[in-house]
Give the backbone structure.
Amino acid sequence: MKLVDTSAWIEQLRRGGDPTVRERLEALLVTGEAAWCPIVRLELWNGARGDHEGTVLREMEKELPCLEISPPVWDRAAKLAHLARERGVTVPGTDLLVAACAQHHGVNIEHHDKHFDLIAGLALA
């Protein structure tokens, strides 16, 4: 299973999205390995345009596993934020939360966002 970040979903949902990202995501959808989490769901609804995207999101809500963002995930995100700041790395809080969620659940992230590459370089005990 992979936690699919908003950045990858956007490539999938929009015409002209990056074909490489779309292919990887399509493979995850076909095999049932795609998951999301509440913050990704919120970001997608916040950016949804038109009836088509709303319909797609409602279907995703029915079909996709949703990885919980529990108090330990929030704690991990805060630790990642602190570590990033110590190293002079600036990462949006939403990306830190997605990364912490993936780490907590022991899954990788499918993304199209350089911030996750920066987060991957942080060592968290």
Observations:
- The helical segments are 6-13, 19-31, 38-47, 50-63, 71-86, 93-105, 114-120.
- The longest strand covers residues 2-4.
